[in-house]
Amino acid sequence: MENASPETAVTKVIDRIPREGMDAQLEQAIKNLIAAALRFRGHLGVTVTRPSLPVQPGFRMVYRFDSCEHLRAWEESAEYARLVSEANRYTQGGPRYDILTGLETWFTLPAQPALRPPPRAKMTFVSWLGIFPLVYLYAELFDWILPSGTPVVLKVFAVTALVVPTMSYVVAPRLTRLFKSWLYPGSNTIRTRPLSEPGGNP
Hints:
The protein is of the alpha+beta class. It is 45% helix and 13% strand.
């Protein structure tokens, strides 16, 4: 499988509340969806958690594709339409969908990947806390090592080329853990169990 680029990978969150007495049927329908999705190109994995009242009233499926195009190919397939139609039979109301890209994918707790992203204002503030010192430090570094006549656009290019991966892979995960209680109020009370692999025992 090709490696996903942080700029193109997409995460989709689907919440389904089971109809009364149909938890087992909905769980099996979700397993069927997972098994089918894993066969599609670009699929990067899936996490499913069972209901955990009162915080999470239904099943939550979080899956990632390496691009919007591959996600669209899966969701426009006849197999997807058939399996979603089956799952909808056991779902109370309509399922809720969220697509996460950009900043939202920076703010994911490793131990709880199915949490909803925090408010955009909080993500923006914490992102600024990480980006500001990185821009300052890298700008100072390049002012020191590059010739004085280097065009500004090249300095900006060099700075941003280092800031983005440093933020994505080093700073953002640490800031997320540091500000966990503020970004995800009450997350410590969430207790979920992952579903078994498709075809396994629940």
